[in-house]
Design brief:
- The complex is a heterodimer of chains A (about 90) and B (about 80).
- Chain A is about 65% helix and about 0% strand.
- Chain A is built from 2 helices and no strands.
- In chain A, α1 packs across α2.
- Chain B is mostly helical.
- Helix content of chain B is about 80%, strand content about 0%.
- The longest helix of chain B has about 30 residues.
- The chains are: A mainly alpha (about 90), B mainly alpha (about 80).
- At the A-B interface, α1 and α2 of A face α1 and α2 of B.
- Chain A: Belongs to the small Tim family.
- Chain A: It holds the Pfam family zf-Tim10_DDP.
Chain lengths: ~90, ~80
């Protein structure tokens, strides 16, 4: 059975059945979560490349690697700071 | 499949969440550029974390100011 159809009630007809609402909602949530994750990855990659790889050499130096690690941690932390500032601001 | 109200509500909710996620993402990106000017350290300095929080709040202030300005321009 392909992942996009729900089980048919009888063994009868072949061909795609329309997914139930629950299956559809789960698929949408999964796809959205994946899209968010991919976008976040891309943003962090871009920001940390800018901050840490200022003069590309023939390999990643130790200082570049640790800069990148710190950069990723700080960017995640920054996202949290911004979220909290946006949602605790009561006007 | 008919568009059940449950599905409509779900889609509305997810649309809201997506809009919020986009705003957080965009704001974090811009405030990072404004506030984190040196090489990232193992923690934020207090001026860096203050700057980030201020940045988000000033963005909200600015949004309200722009809305008011647009409203006054329509009258």
């Amino acid at each position: 059975m392909d992942p996009f159809s729900s089980p048919s009630p009888s063994g009868g007809s072949s061909g795609q059945t329309i997914p139930s609402a629950d299956v559809l909602m789960d698929q949408v949530k999964t796809q959205l979560a994946q899209a968010y994750a991919e976008e976040f990855f891309e943003t962090v990659r871009s920001k940390c490349f800018t901050k840490c790889i200022t003069k590309p050499g023939t390999s990643l130096s130790g200082s570049e690697s640790s800069c990148i690690t710190r950069c990723v941690e700080r960017y995640i932390e920054a996202t949290g700071i911004i979220s909290r500032a946006l949602f605790s601001a009561h006007r | 499949m008919d568009s059940s109200p449950e599905l409509q509500r779900f889609l509305q909710e997810e649309k809201q969440k997506a809009m919020i996620a986009e705003m957080v993402g965009k704001l974090t990106s811009e405030c990072w550029d404004k506030c984190i000017t040196s090489t990232p350290g193992s923690k934020f300095s207090s001026s860096e974390s203050t700057c980030l929080a201020n940045c988000a709040q000033r963005y909200l202030d600015m949004t309200m100011l722009i809305q008011k300005k647009f409203q006054s321009m329509q009258q």
